[in-house]
Structures are given as structure tokens and as C-alpha cells.
Write a structure and sequence with these properties.
It is built from 26 helices and ten strands. Helix 25 links the parallel strand 7 and strand 8. It is elongated. The chain starts with 37 loop residues before the first helix and ends with a helix. With 577 residues, it is an alpha/beta fold. The protein folds into four domains: 152 residues, Serine Threonine Protein Phosphatase 5, Tetratricopeptide repeat; 122 residues, Serine Threonine Protein Phosphatase 5, Tetratricopeptide repeat (Alpha Horseshoe); 82 residues; 171 residues, Rossmann fold, CATH 3.40.50. Helix 4 packs antiparallel against helix 5, helix 5 runs antiparallel to helix 6 and helix 14 runs antiparallel to helix 15. It has a six-stranded mixed sheet, with helices on one face. Strands 3-2-1-4 form a four-stranded parallel sheet.
Amino acid sequence: MSMPNNKNQCSIDENLPVFLNKDKFAFNLKTNNSNTDSKFYLGELEIKKGNYNKAKAYFLDSFLSDKNIDTAINLSTCFSKLEQFSDAISFFESNLKYFKNNGTYWAILATHNYCGFDYEGAAGASYNAIFKFNIDLSEIWKIFVFSAKKINRSELLYKVSKNSLEDALNNPYVLEGYLSSCCSLNLYEEAYNFLNNINLTKVMVSNMGEISGIIASLVASIIARNEWSSERELAWNELAAKLSPDVSDIKWNLSLSQLKNCMISECYKNYSSRFSWSEFPSPVRIFKKPKWNQNVKTTSRILLWYEQGIGDELRFISTLPFFKANFPNLILEPSDKLVELMTNTFPEIEVRYSTIESDLSTTNEDFDYHLPIGDMFLFCLEMKGDLLRDSTFSFSEKYLKPDKLRNFYWNDKLTKSGGKPLVGFCWRSSFIDRQRSREYSVLEQWQNLIESNVFRFVNLQYDLTQTDFVEKYPEYKGWFVDIGHLDQKDDLDGTAALINNLDFVLSPASTPSMISSCLGIPTLIYATPNPYWFSRNKKFSQHPLFKNSLIYPSLNVAEDKNLVPEIADFLMKKFKK
């Protein structure tokens, strides 16, 4: 499921400093008779009056003659109240040599590094306070978890939080750190087993304070990757949104769960939160003209503008013919890579390069209304909501139309390739990290199918040119058609013409499978359950959007022992002579 990454969800508001409470550190103080220092006493009197500049001056003088933790804590209070975090970082780091074995001092340093947005320093200092000196305070755990996520130190976060799991139900930051690091490190099964072992309930999470919504959202993500049914995932995302109603990525998670459960109307209300999500992978355009709504005149001139990735864009545009039947006066601004292909596909409407300016505005607003294509997609789905619940229904058969001359070229070239069924094959995305690795296979897994001598394969791995493919996989050269110098990553018009002449396409949920589906080429998509599949989770189910496409759901593609043999058997039977 395409879920927003939880690793950067803040467990504390980065704009609100965390102030250390002296009383909380009383168990760890070593005063060295500092209370005899008159300047120390004067400083404490000024703190009580709220005169933090005067207090800081007294404590600095006192610290020169007696470097002790009491004075350091009072200085921390002064720096914090004055919001002098850069000065605080410089001061406490310069004096760290005197307090390397004092956990309280590391906690002070962590606090000021955090408040000064030095997350590397904050993570390191809070790690020392927690792991080396057992400073088990919620404020320090907040700093550690947030900072470690901010700098992508998932391994460190996992190590420290797992070491403290006995406190997970008493310290929600331990729980957040463990669950979020498990998600980042693709340890969903481990996290799922842990949640079941502690019998975590919604009531327990609801009482976990300011990060209860984040924890509920993490639980939903973990459930999504371990259970076929999407009902519990939805329930946890509903709880997350209730607990954190103003967090945009939590609302985005909820919208995708609602979409998965074919709750189109409910999804529509939350889907717009994507534009408030800081990691949303699209520019959020600014317009003077109003956004389209379904009550506008059907003759209105409407700009449809692209969002999200190429695969999502193609999926969303698949409903454009339906939208156009109701609102025919359209301008389409796809991403640059798709302009030629969309011009061939929709010759009756204006297709043009994006008119977005560097400041996200549009200078010449020659339209009456604008609409992001994701909203157009949901509007069209809502019109067919009841039908989508029918497991045999598909929204459309095909809509893409490649360039005629390029289509003829590939038809001529591929008919000379040996007469065997031509299977376009993609096995992974161009981008794979530890978390995404579970979504994809490796070419070697498919060796028996490739060498079965039943098919000729066409490399649709768009980040590998023909030269790259031969260099990386020389042993498979004879089983794949030479496609020359076609740039499948950027020349999508040419790629569509190639795919349009194939007999079948086998691919994960990536751009090649979306192109083939939109062309009406028989396609099998293997992937983790996708929100746009509307809970059709049986193997070889009918795709709800594309009539000639089937889906093969797997909770973990990379480790699914049945995936390759079952798909190979399916292909053999389909093309059996």
C-alpha cells in the first residue's frame, strides 16, 4: 500500500522548546558545595523574578569558579527562557569535557541541540543520556526519537528503543521509536508480532498523550502489511485521525484506507490533505481562478493539472474520458514526459506543457476553473462507487493511443523476433530502499520462466538501457529482444509504442504496468495490496480500473515463495498451444 512515510512525523512540535525541569534531575545532581557561592544564590533569586539575563550573568560568573551540574541546569533554564539556543549549544559543548560522565549534562546538551535544530547533535546527546546514563525521562525520549527520525538514523532508533521495550506501554516515545524504526527497516512482521504479544488496544493508545495519533497511524501501517483484510487497518487510521485531526499525513493515510475499502465519498473529503503534507511529491500550485466543483456550468473551461508520479498520473487520467463526457471544454497539463503521448491520445482537447511559474503561480489563467487530476479521478470513481464493489467490474478497457508511425516501427521490428509470445517484463522500481525492497523481486528469481523457451521477453526495466541490461545480465541476453536505443525512462511516447505491440506484460505496480494497462495490453501486476484495488485481494483478480489487467496481491513480494511459480504456471497455461 502506498502510505506516507511515518519516519518524519514529529512526536513534538519543533517550534516549541522543551524546558528541563531541575526537580526531575534531582536524583543525579552533584553539587560540589556550589550552594556556598553567593553569585549562584543571586542567580537563583533573579530566576524567581523572571530576570533571566541577570540570572545568566550571575551563573556564568559562578560557573567560572565552580563547574558543577547545579549551575549548568540553571544556565540551561536561562538560555531556554531567552531562546538563545545557538549560544547555549556553544557554551555546553565547550564545557562538555568537564561533564562527559554526567548523564544530566548530556540531557541538557540534547535539549539545546534540539531547540537549535541541530538534530544530529540532539540525537547523539540524547542517545548518551538514555543509553549510557539511564536518563529515562519522557522529554529526552521525545528529543531522541524525533531527532533520530529527522536524520534518518533508523538503525540507532531501533537499537535503543528495542532495548527499552519493557517500558513501551509506560513511555509512548519508546513505542513510537520502535514501531517507526521497524517500518523504516522493513521489519513489519516483527512489529506485528510485538503488537499482538502486548495486546495493544485502541483505549491504551488513546491514553498515550500527544503522540497517540501517530502511534495509531503506525499500527495501521503495520497491520496493512500483515493482514489481508483492510478493516482493522481502517479502524486504526480512523482512530489516528480522531486523535490527531489536524495532522495532514494522518488524514492522508485515512483517505487511502477509505479508498481501499471503496469508501469513495469519505475518501474524497480527506484526500485533499495531500497538499498540506510536507512530503507530498508534487508542487502545490497557486491559482487566482477558483477550483472546479461539480455544480459549475458544463461549458466552463477547466484546466486539469498533473500531480504525483507518472504511474499515478496515468491512472488518474484514465477517467478523463468519463469526465470529458460531462465537461468537454478542457485543457490538460500533464508532466512534460507525457505531453506527446497525451497529445496523441486526446487530439480533440488542448494538451500543453505546464504553465506553472517558479513561484507556483500561473501567469496566464486562460480558463474558468482548475482541478488537480487526482480530484478528477475521485469524482469519476464516486459516480461509479457501487459498481466498483462488484469484483468483476472494471472502469475502462483502454484509453492511451501511441504515435502511429512509432507503433508501426515496433510492430515491424517485433514481428521478426521469432514468433513466440512477447512478454514485457519489469521486476522492480528504479528506486529501492530498505522499506521498498519488500515490494519487488529480482530478475534471478524468474530464471526458470525466462529459460523455459516458451516466450521471448522484452526488458521494460526503464532505468536499464539495452546496453546496461546486457552488461548487467549477460546470461539472459539470448532470451530478451534487443530494443536498441529506446530511452524508456524519458521517452514515454516511444515506450508506449513498444508496449502496444506486446502480447503480455508482467510487472510490479510501476510505470510499465500502468502504461500497458492503459493501452489495454493484457497485464499481470504483482504487488502488496494497493488502495486502488479496492480490497480485491484474491490472486489473479480482475483489476477494478482496467479490463485487460489482473492483479496478484502479496503481503511481501520479495519473500513470497509462491509468487514466481504460480505466476509462471499462469503464463504457461495462458499461452499453451
